[in-house]
């Protein structure tokens, strides 16, 4: 029970077991002064727990995850992980840069997905507790990693403050021109993880446009207005209001698995708001990134998650802030020039002040 008392902010580290190849994994618990906390692994930079107060002041863990490294290694789904070098799918795993064609690892036939066979989600990152609420993770991706050009140094900083802001600061620099698009694959269920599906959570996304996908969930680069489609979340609605509508795009994604375009890059703006009537918890997503992938966990299948809870299809959803999909490169360049700094920030803000309004 959240008591309303205040305690000192802290970051504490403990062992989280070993990978199948014997590497030691550490877990960092970032606790704020009201006792809410997030847990982060140096393996994949994974957000493993997000425990925030619900409408009754009880701490509720809204983040899907596992209790051991082996499950993170074994199951796909990228639960809570940092995604890099390039979030989302790249058609046939190829792109041209400076007159040269690069061929990336194919891990989602016929395309490249989320950084390839061994993306950033599968590495142990160097970690540093910077102060009592800032954890810094770093990783160096060598030239040619999964087919990408340039040696890329990446840092991801996690901060969890007293207003329940979980902020993620991404920075990267390459020694050669390359492409970069980093995100985090946090799955949330604001009813509490393991408490059924997210279909009764309500969502608002401040986007007028989304990008269409093909039958392999690859963004085609075709940008469509959300008006009069099931993709219109500009006014808050339950996830299940339109998800079963007869719509080719929903069929291709087996639900929502689409990139929404918010527009401005580099300025912090409100992207989305997710709420649960059951818990009273609201998650507001704020980011410098121009797009967000809404993925309603359509390919999650039955497995055992944290605390032996049963996870199933659509039991969590992701709001993955990111750049435009590669197929939109004619309108937004994903190129990071040699020596330039990639610098983006996303904040997931949690509060429990949400009041139940009649459903739309
Ligand atoms: C993608 C899904 C994919 C999932 C993998 C999401 O970001 O949009 O298509 O299946 O990641 O877990």
**What are the segments in which pLDDT stays under 50 over at least 5 consecutive residues?**
356-360
Q: Largest sheet at a glance? A: 9 strands, antiparallel
Mean of residue pLDDT values: 96
Instruction: Give the DSSP E fraction (strand runs of 2 or more residues).
Output: 35-45%
What's the tally of helices?
Answer: 2
Structural class per helix/strand content? mainly beta
Instruction: Give the overall shape, derived from the CA principal axes.
Output: globular
Overview of this structure, please?
The chain has 360 residues and is mostly beta strands. The protein is 3% helix and 41% strand. It has helices at 69-74, 248-253; strands spanning 10-18, 24-31, 37-41, 47-53, 59-61, 82-83, 89-90, 94-97, 100-103, 112-113, 126-131, 134-141, 152-160, 165-174, 178-179, 183-184, 187-188, 202-205, 209-213, 219-225, 237-238, 257-261, 269-275, 282-287, 291-295, 303-304, 310-311, 317-322, 335-336, 341-351. A 9-stranded antiparallel beta sheet has the order 11-12-13-14-30-24-23-18-21, with no helix packed on it. It has a 6-stranded antiparallel beta sheet with strand order 17-28-25-22-19-20. Strands 1-2-3-4-5 form a 5-stranded antiparallel beta sheet, with no helix packed on it. The chain binds beta-D-glucopyranose (BGC). Beta-D-glucopyranose is lined by residues 77-78, 217, 257, 293, 295, 299, 318, 320.
Could you write a compact summary of the structure shown?
This protein is mostly beta strands. It has helices at about 70-75, 250-255; strands spanning about 10-20, 25-30, 35-40, 45-55, 60, 80-85, 90, 95, 100-105, 110-115, 125-130, 135-140, 150-160, 165-175, 180, 185, 185-190, 200-205, 210-215, 220-225, 235-240, 255-260, 270-275, 280-285, 290-295, 305, 310, 315-320, 335, 340-350. It is built from two helices and 30 strands.
